[in-house]
Write a structure and sequence with these properties.
- The protein is an alpha/beta fold.
- It has one domain: P-loop containing nucleotide triphosphate hydrolases (Rossmann fold).
- It is 35% helix and 18% strand.
- It has six helices and six strands; from the N terminus they run βαβαβαβααβαβ.
- A six-stranded parallel β-sheet has the order 3-2-4-5-1-6, sandwiched between helices.
- The longest helix has 18 residues.
- The protein is globular and about 45 Å long.
- The protein starts with 7 loop residues before the first strand and ends in a 20-residue tail after the last strand.
- The model has no long low-confidence stretch (mean pLDDT 90).
- One of its GO terms (molecular function) is ATP binding.
- Keywords: Transferase.
- It comes from Carboxydocella sporoproducens DSM 16521.
């Protein structure tokens, strides 16, 4: 007998494709007529192709929100506004987890946790007490061990080789 319930899936590591994998799952869920919510932490720009495309599709079954500045945030230079935006996104995420969404994607939340912009205890409590039908995908580098421990599935994306190392810069449609 196979139990069916929502899962917690963490996609982490230093390789390319964490957000891409999560968004692929969003498309799969939408294809099964499931409701999907995506919160992109530390991102606040419409340069991201996946955001632009899904924003066009947004309806009662799909919600996508960015909570961040349009600049890249580094661990040592994150400031109060970055933390305020992360907290705003987390409050939204918590409310979405408690509503009628089947899948909630917390894109780059692991980075927000790694940077100390969000209390891990609150995240753990919310994830472990969520409604049984809700699946959660957490993405971003440096997932805390506490997140890995409560995850049903952990995917670690490694960097075997990256074109950036060859001097090729980020390209629209590939990296963003």
């Amino acid at each position: 007998m196979c139990n069916q319930r929502g899962i917690i899936w963490t996609i982490t590591g230093d390789g390319k494709g964490k957000t891409t994998a999560a968004f692929g799952q969003a498309l799969r869920a939408l294809g099964h007529n499931q409701a999907v919510a995506i919160i992109q932490f530390l991102k606040g720009s419409n340069i991201y192709g996946e955001y632009r495309f899904l924003q066009q599709l947004a309806n009662k079954q799909l919600l996508i929100k960015q909570v961040g500045l349009p600049t890249f945030v580094r661990k040592n230079i994150a400031d109060q506004i970055d933390q305020d935006l992360v907290l705003r996104g987390w409050f939204l995420a918590r409310s979405l987890i408690e509503t009628s969404y089947n899948l909630v994607i917390l894109d780059e939340i692991n980075v927000a946790l790694d940077y100390g912009l969000l209390a891990i205890e609150d995240v753990i409590k919310t994830l472990t007490t969520r409604p049984a039908t809700v699946s959660i995908i957490l993405t971003g580098r440096n997932a805390p061990q506490e997140i890995l421990a409560i995850s049903d599935t952990v995917s670690i994306i490694t960097n075997g080789k990256h074109h950036y190392e060859q001097g090729l810069m980020a390209q629209a449609g590939i990296e963003f």
